[in-house]
Here is the input.
Amino acid sequence: MTVMTSPEGTVAGPDLERLWKTRRDRDRFQWSSLALMTPAFGLLIILFLIPMGYAVYLGLTNLTLVGPDSVKWGFTGLQNLSRLRQDSTFWTSLWVTGGFIGGSIVGVLVAGYWLASLLMRARPWMRIVVGGVVVVSWMMPAVTAGMTWYASTTQGGALGTLIGMRNTNFLDSWPLVIVTLANIWSMTGFSMLVIGAALRNIPSEAIEAAMVENASAWQRFRSIVLPLLRPTMIAVVLLTALLSLANFGLIYIMTQGGPGNATNILPLYSYQQAFSFNNLAYGALIGNVMVLLATVFGVLYVRVAAPRS
Amino acid sequence: MSGIRFEGVWKLFEGSAVVSDLNLDVRAGEFIVLVGPSGCGKTTSLRMLAGLERPSHGRIFIGDRDVTDVPTGERDISMVFQSYALYPNMNVYRNLAFGPRVRKEPRATLDARINEVAELLQIKHLLKRTPAALSGGQRQRVALGRALIREPQVFLMDEPLSNLDAALRVQMRAELIRLHQRLEKTTNVYVTHDQVEALTMGDRVAVLKDGVLLQVDSANDLYEHPSSVFVGEFIGSPKMNILEGTLSFSGDSCTVEVLGVRADVSERVAGRLREGVVSGPVLVGIRPHDLFPATGSTGESPAISATVDISEHTGAEVFATMETGPSRVVARLPRVPTPDRGERVDLAFRAGAVHLFDRDTQLSLLDRGTPSRRTSAPADISQQVR
Amino acid sequence: MRLLRGAKAPRVIAATALATVAMTAGISATVSTASASSKVTISVAYAADTTFDTIPLGTKWWGAVKKEFQQKYPNVTLKLIPVPGGEPDFLTKLALLFKQSNPPDVVQFPSTEIALYQSSGYLLSLDKYLSGSGKTWFSQYPTVIQNEGKIGGKIYAVSAGENNNGIYYDKAILQKAGIPLPWQPKTWADIITAAKAIKKAEPKVIPLWVDAGTSAGPNGAGYGILNLLAGSATPTIQTASGKMVVSSKGLLQTLDFYHTVFADGLGAPTSQLFSENNAPNIPSTDFAKGTLGIAVAANFIGGNWTKMVSFPYWPKASTAMGVAGLPKINGGGYASTLSGWDFGISSKTKDAEAAFNLINVMQESKNMIDAANWAGWVPPVKSYWSIPTYANFAAPFNEEFGKLLASSSELPTSANYSVWVQAIEQASGAIAQSPSTSGAAAMSQMKSYVTNQLGPSAVTTLP
Here is the structure.
């Protein structure tokens, strides 16, 4: 391009200018493309923008499920927001959500990497069996996973029986820990698959080269494997965060947010406000907070996952 | 200075032997090439030497030290991989510095050492680039540089040139030879499937086939005294013609009948014939270089009438596939005039250059006569084969 | 409504609920308009999955009602609208149904919803019909149940069946503990004394079941802690001006009672109390296994042991188990909450006459007794209690609970109540989980939760 615009020195200068103007490989805009994009835009607007806008609006009203405010309702300005600011249950819920997501991320990463690297070295039949079991746990509906974990972590359940504490009620004693573990359990299959694929993409000769250089296992992991897995791990982190934030069913089945508010993550609190306490509008506002959180994770995910060119 | 010794090394993989009873002595400072077609066990042998594979049986020594059970990092070796195996997440500088750093070598001398190596390999301007931004030849140099940083006892190379284009391969080949001459204390083990590379680079060349070591010799001796039909055909280009023939003795003279003519090979076989060889059918090996238009000179066989089928121009010479009776042979024809298809030519071969092999065992019937001088990478051969 | 009460249905997000309801409503709308000309069509919405003990029993009951109704009124077509889902989902979907322009004509719903629906203007006043064709059965309701649907002097709903609560006890276990039979505690202290005696005599038995925690939803408290509150010094939950009581002598007495129960190790383990799987029905299995001494529990426990319900089937229950009224704290009568299901008519109905005729059919003794037996209710009509098909269904429990009905009291039905009941369940759960929690501490926790949710102006403190 600099050649084209500098007039001096080149014999073919004027010609080049003409060639530049008439070149046929430039990006072109065609009005017909707008027409072709209309269905996609329309769907986006109907299925996404309008409902989103409506949800934001709902969050600032006094709509209830039944009762007088379900018939006559209207915009109440920032009233719900100031209520949200003072709502200690909401802040507790936000912390619980953070703990749940944070714990899930760490657990899913560690367990996923651990399983993936073990399976790399496992015998084929072992790889099929273990991989299959883990993936089944991932494919399992939240209801089934929740029921399974509920049954195994309460008094007389499998966990207590296995470690010789039959009479301990793990779910009620460490509710957030147990539901986080259940969430990790149900998502490890996904992270194992993704990290496993990334591990297989690491050139084995690079690892061998490092072995020849007498690098210890930790040095090989730290200097080569981890940097190469980094993009994958970030994707796993963000997807885990998003999926955990949406994992309503699991906790609803296991504890319904209890005991007290110990496992009351935002989706449950939103549901409780909207449908148990009838406050559809306030529930929608809490839902909007979740959308905001999810957007942050989503934008991060897109930025990290997008190919850098 | 450390030599290398394989003692009865086997590598079994899923019931079959990838390497069978390998016994090989490499002298300290020697440049040895393991060559053979793919699947012959050459890379496996190298990887066992590097400690990346464990031998199923046998022992491996570097110098006097039995390294069979020594972890790879403690063998004091450097290795260049076929894929170069650069660390994709590090720039060139950090690729070179990785080894010294994990070995906790003093940092003070590190920069100087990297500069020295980078200068030697002319990659100084690339130090800040990542492997993805390098061309194949540049990556190859970096891989080499990474191996050189260590100043190892033993330098292993696994087909380091196979991913390069032809021109670059020839250039790098020369550079590797020069490098080896500079680092004369280092023992080099070099794996390739390319016999030209093997002949040009190796002080000695070890030919493997199906996991069995067939012959270890200097390039010259391999070319002149192949111990078997396989080695005869594998070394040299175009391939040696292998023909059915009959060996007959009468009195002091020995003749071989091949391609419909009878040639006196008494001089060739004198004092070199293996014990127990009697008259009868044999396999006769004639290199295309030794088969040319008859001139009637002494030492030539009687004329063989042949028809040109396909001719291949290789620059200096033309090699043509010829039909003569039931046989097809490759012969060396003059460049001018260009031989036409269907043209009749009277061929003759040099009787003093025929190779004789047993029909059943395919082993050579001739012992090596006067021991030939060991020379490294004789230039005449590389010219001949190219 | 025994087995699925409090059980968790699969999660339902509002979107799918909306979609389902919209579809159901759409169908009902087309049907009712299409046949409006010659033949009248009315519709009735009810919970498909939660009201009856089993789903087929519900189908059977509603099918029989439809058949009988259409025979009696050949000009009217009855359209059944079963609304699927667990109770919270059912309530959500029902509310959305009523937001449509074409709501069902008749609805069967929990009594806690009456005030909400009435305040939304969804319900038709029934007084005209109750003094007319409905008088025969409505006049036989106990006063407390007549008032169940009364708001501002008008009646908007009539009972479909009631749940009340009392005390069950295992006769053999009490005998081993040295307590003379038949046992009728006079005060709460009597209950504690008996429970302590059981703990001493039979250490492996759970002495006393009282519910705790949030896992059974708002109903859980109705089958447990609110019965005790009803028998305390100040049973008020919501004042006449609509404020929720977050601190009172009665609340403190009740939570102190819980503290005593759990601090002394007399209560059930949290694995049972907090069970997401149908906690209010756990006493029936525990009793059958012989691992429970006394329970404050609902009327339907007795029916659980019948062959029809089999939860579990326990033929010896009629002789092995005893029933007693739950005494007030210091004696002077019994106390129980009342939670029932009701019928109402939509204010938008096109044919109120036909709609009330449907209610008349459903209030007939056979239909009411079938419903009571199959859903675990006490029928609201006094004369039905001694009809053998009811009394013998789960003898002696059914008749006893019929008699206890008169001493029951209604629960509030405002939107704020759902927050308050969540808070008292959290308080009882806190005590059950860490028995060192005092009654006062649990009450202040409850107070701060309700105040936080509803704002200080919606709560009050009673002496």
Observations:
- The two ends of chain A are 19 Å apart (CA to CA).
